[in-house]
Amino acid sequence: MKAHRVADGLWTWTAPHPSWDEAYDWPEAVGCVYYEAPDAVVVIDPLLPRGEEDEFLQALDRDVERLGLPVAVLLTAPCHSRSADELARRYGTVVWAHEHGRGRLPFPSRADALPHGIELVVPDGPDEGQVAFFIRPHRALVVAEIFAGERGGLRVCPSPALRNRAAFEASLRRLLELPIEHVLVSHGEPVLGDGRAAVARALASASG
Question: Domain 2-207 adopts which CATH fold?
Answer without folding.
Answer: Metallo-beta-lactamase; Chain A (3.60.15)
